[in-house]
Design brief:
Elements (H helix, E strand, L loop, with lengths): L2 E8 L2 E8 L6 E8 L13 H10 L9 E6 L5 E4 L9 H16 L6 E6 L6 E6 H13 L3 E7 H9 L8 E6 L2 E8 L2 E9 L6 H15 L6 E5 L14 E4 L11 H6 L6
Parallel strand pairs: 1-4, 4-8, 9-12, 12-13
Antiparallel strand pairs: 1-2, 2-3, 5-7, 6-7, 9-10, 10-11
Helix pairs in contact: 1-3
Length: 270
């Protein structure tokens, strides 16, 4: 009771943890494994190596009946938003618009991906994961008799955990490795998600200029506050009159973890 398994899946590496709400320690590393990212082109391979690596760190019978949650590197997923079609009256109209938007953005056939949505009457938001990746995760979970609770990209995990704590007018940010993923907010809703490379020497000026540019692209005011998950350069946190960056609480030792381990522990135990 109060315990669950959490798996973080990065490109080429995975990390399995046991989380406990009532017993110390809250997090216990159970195993890590490397795998060949995928056999095939891009994200269209079979992900068989991922399934084999997961079998290695999940011994048969040891965790039967346990809940398992999976957090994916955002690079393994696709995130996009769709404007409501004019005159749309049915769910099928929105889903058709989402499929067309997906193909225009990524050039992939929608049938190779499994999509889900977070509904907002103003701008439905969609996420898609390769069906071959889902097939391996669900296969191993079924063979090990695990209850698969959720499979979600890291950005969605962080957004679900923290969006209720965002202050009026603030944007949401996630800094993972050298990528800043912005949740552009306007009128209290999520307007767009943008993943941007961060230069090694990126200082406060770079951050402010980047936010101003993204605001222009989206046709919204630039934020006075960026609320961030991750460990930004110290210069980003310097207080200023016009703009400042605030970091959500980061557990001790988080910076020493592997990327896959940080994925597994994204959003805490909630």
């Amino acid at each position: 009771m109060g315990q669950a398994l959490r798996l973080g899946v990065a490109a080429g590496h995975m990390s399995l943890w046991r989380g406990s709400r009532w017993r110390a320690p809250a997090w216990t590393l159970l195993g890590e494994a490397a795998y060949v990212p995928h056999a095939g082109l891009g994200l269209h391979g079979d992900f068989a190596a991922l399934g084999q690596a997961l079998e290695q760190i999940l011994p048969a019978g040891q965790y039967a009946g346990w809940p398992l949650a999976v957090v994916l590197d955002d690079a393994l997923a696709r995130l996009w938003q769709v404007d409501m079609p004019q005159g749309a009256a049915r769910l099928a109209d929105i889903e058709a618009a989402a499929a067309l938007r997906f193909q225009s953005l990524y050039g992939d056939a929608p049938g190779l991906w499994h999509s889900s949505s977070a509904w907002d009457a103003r701008a439905p938001f969609f996420c898609a994961v390769p069906r071959a990746l889902l097939a391996q995760l669900t296969r191993v979970a079924a063979e090990r008799k695990l209850a698969l609770i959720f499979i979600t990209p890291q950005f969605a995990r962080h957004w679900n955990r923290w969006h209720g704590a965002l202050k009026p007018g603030a944007w949401f940010g996630q800094l993972q490795e050298n990528t800043l993923t912005l949740g552009v907010r306007h009128d209290g809703g999520l307007r767009a998600v943008r993943a941007l490379p961060v230069p090694q020497d990126a200082g406060r000026d770079w951050l402010e200029q980047t936010l101003a540019r993204e605001a222009l692209l989206q046709g919204v005011p630039a934020p006075a506050l960026l609320q961030l998950c991750g460990a930004p350069p110290p210069a980003w946190l310097a207080q200023a009159e016009a703009f400042h960056c605030q970091v959500f609480s980061t557990p001790d030792g988080e910076g020493t973890l592997s990327p896959a381990a940080r994925l597994a522990r994204s959003g805490g135990l909630a």
